[in-house]
Amino acid sequence: MADLPFLSRLRSHEYIALLVSFIFITLEGALHIIILFLPKLVINWFYFKSRSLFLHFVGASHSKPEARRLADRIRKANDFEDLCAIFGYHNVEEHVVLTKDGYLLGIHRIPGPKGGPRPVPGASSGKPVVYLHHGLLMNSEVWVCLTSPDRSVPFVLAELGYDVWLGNNRGNKYSKKSIHHDPTSIKFWDFSIDDFAWHDIPDSIEYILQITGAQSLGYVGFSQGTAQAFAALSIHPQLNQKVNVFIALAPAMRPKGLSAPLVDGLMKTSPTLLFLIFGRRAILSSALLWQSILYPPIFSCLIDASLVFLFSWHSHNITSTQKLAAYSHLYSFASTKSVVHWFQIMRSGRFVMYDDDLYTPALRPSKHSPRPGYRPAKFPTRNIATSIVLLYGDVDSLVDIDAMRLELPEHRLDIRRLKGYEHLDVLWGKNVHVDVIPQVARALQHHCEKPEVTKDIPFEFGLKASLHPDAAFGSEHVDGWENGSASGYATSADA
Description:
Strand content: 5-15%
Low-confidence stretches: 1-7, 359-363, 463-495
Helix content: 25-40%
Largest sheet: 8 strands, mixed
Structural class: alpha/beta
Order of helices and strands: HHHHEEEHEHEHEHHHHHHEHEHHHH
């Protein structure tokens, strides 16, 4: 019997989940419209009412006043430049990259240390170049919204002597423009991981190398930012010569799925249900509205509950003040199609390109009527020639490190396990100054073009960072390299 949509492919409990999701989205859509027409006075009333209820039932925060004030400043910062200014980085530059298919991407640059001379915008700094790229539903702000500059990867790298660039995906807060399509149109949002790999990553890197005059750069990606690099390096052989090392934080390639069985099963059964639920433009755009009307600790609790439900992430390694500071910068616009692409990858168990053959479920292979001749194209990740460093949390439900080993060139691979780390911990954890950043800095220094102009990360770096009021006291969770040794990295004196 042929597979028919919503008949043979869904079970009874999946019908119930689908019905509930439609009701929820309908109510959310109605609330979205209502809030759009509400005066500011009414929105403020909801905000302060939620605040008073929270304080009545939960009580005031016990964190130190200076930590709360800093978290509040970070939370209220409007953009990347405002966030950098909080920590004294006033030399930030913003650039615009035109991709080959017509999207305008906003990218940011921190050309030097805090208080250093500001070069002519767009001029070469003569320093080794490093490029950072964010994850799904994020933008470049996630790298600089930490409550301590010693736990921020770009700030530390700028102090060590790197020319730091931070990218943005098409459609997000800094890249919501195209020369061909209006952002209100469906065509504007018709992109997936394929488009990030074919255009956004290589075009951004090419622009940066042209501006800086460097021959190559180091790439540091987080979550989907790693998947985009895996894909881009696999399909652009020449790009491997322009990336001297690829450092993958919380790497994502082919996750097993979500921790919520009902949602996971439903989306894997039919990934395109997301189009029915969220439409064909941006996904979860109402998150910004909820953020505006809810008291920040309540919004943080909602984010925490969602992460536990979907991924079983409890975020114990992220402090409450860090959550208050960062969660307001967590969401940025992304296409529904890019999320559908992830569910296609989970369903197939392979790191595949987007499957455009979405509308013929009756012809899909099944146990009743297999059709072995059809499979979506796979990204040829074994072709990657760039050196790869993987830093992953061993309790991260989205990382399947064993599967990743099989898909990457073993002779180019260094793997670093972070004990007790979940996904977001690698970015915002209280001990990243000890467990993560030193490994990133040493890997970059070992592979960069001009190691002699960079500084060694101080041995006591973690201790210095731990003195910040919002940071932790060092870490017990430091494992050796699984392939090679951390001590194998050359310092500038060895180079």
